[in-house]
C-alpha cells in the first residue's frame, strides 16, 4: 500500500503542466497534514516535477528529459541574465526551443522566430510585439522597457517579456555558457542511466526465509539481494556471507545487514563506484529520498558504464577534457607522457597550476596501470612536491613508475621533467576497481 507521501507525489505527477499547486490545496485534496504536504512538494521540487517562481507560486512543470537537458526554461533565463519580468510572468515555467538575436530587419528576423523561441532584442517595440504574436518570448537588452500593449499581449499569451541591463552580446554569451554547462551535465553518467529497475530485480522481504535466499541463489547465481519491509521500503541487504551455517527456516530479517549503503538515481556513477571500492561491496540498492526501493546497481554495471563512456564522443568539454587533449604519448612503448604548458593550464602567475598537474598525474598513472592490469583505477591519495615553477610554453615529460601493485592497491611514483631539469615529484595511491 502506498504511503501518504507517495500518494502526494503521484497526485502531483497527474497534474497538467502549468497548473498551480499549494500546500493547503494538497492537504485538503488528499486529507493529509500541512507538514506532510510540504515535505512531499519539496521532494517533487527536487525531482524537477514542480518549480517555485517568485510572485507566481509553485507550478507543475515538465520534467526535462536527459536527451534535451540543454533546453532552458524562461525562469532559468531570468536568473542567468539577472533580469526583471515586465509581463507574461505566468509563462516562466515554459521551455524555450532556441534563442534568436534580433540584429536584422524585422521581416528577415521573423523567418527565424517561431513558437517557443526567445527573441533577444533592444528597444525595437514593433519587433517585440510581432515576436509575441508569433508565440515567442522576448528578452529586452540594455535595460529598456516594453510598451503597455506588448505587456498586455504577454499576459494574455502567457509568454514572458524579460528586461536585462546587459547588452545583446553579453546576454548571448551567458545563455551559450548555460547551455554548454548543461550539455556537459548531460554527459555525466548517473545511477538512473545504468540501474537494474525493481521489476527486474529479485527482492526479498523481512518475511522471507534463508530457504528462499538459497532457492534464488541457486536459480540466478546472485550472491546478494535487497530486503524490503511489507510497504516496499528498503530495510537491509542480505548476502551469501550472512546465511552461511544458518537454518533454512530462519527469517531473513534476523541475518540481514541493516541500514545498508544506498544511492539515489541522481547519484553519479563515479560516486557510486567510489562507495563500492571504499566499502568493498558489489551491490548498491537504489532508493528515493523517502527510502523507497527502486532498483540495484552492481559492480559489473559500473565497470560497463565506465567503458562505454570512454568510447562516447563528448559534446561539451570540461577542464579535464581540455587538459587531456594536451597529453601526448612520449613513445609507443613508453608509459611516459609529454605535454606543453598552454595558457589554459596556468594559474594567475603564468605557471603550471596545481589542478592541471593533478589531472595530468592521475591520467598518466591510469594509463600506466592499464598497460599492466585490466580494470579501472581510482586515485585515492596524492602527495606532490613542486621543486620549481613550470613556465608557460615549457614541454614537460611525466614519467610514472609502479612501485607496488596488489589485488586492490597500486602505488605509483612520478618524475616531472622540463627539459633536463626535474621540476616536480609525486606519489599517487590508486584503488583498483575490478569485477
TrEMBL record:
Annotated CBS domain residues: 195-254, 256-318
Keyword field: CBS domain
Gene3D superfamilies for the chain: CBS-domain (3.10.580.10), Hotdog Thioesterase (3.10.129.10), HprK N-terminal domain-like (3.40.1390.20), Winged helix-like DNA-binding domain superfamily/Winged helix DNA-binding domain (1.10.10.10)
Coiled coil listed as a keyword: no
Coiled coil feature spans: none
Annotated InterPro entries: CBS_dom, CBS_dom_sf, Diverse_CBS-Domain, DRTGG, HotDog_dom_sf, Ser_kin/Pase_Hpr-like_N_sf, Thioestr_dom, WH-like_DNA-bd_sf
SUPFAM superfamilies according to UniProt: CBS-domain pair, HprK N-terminal domain-like, Thioesterase/thiol ester dehydrase-isomerase, Winged helix' DNA-binding domain
Record bears the keyword Hydrolase: no
TM spans (from-to): none
Protein name: CBS domain-containing protein
Native source organism of the sequence: Sporosarcina ureilytica
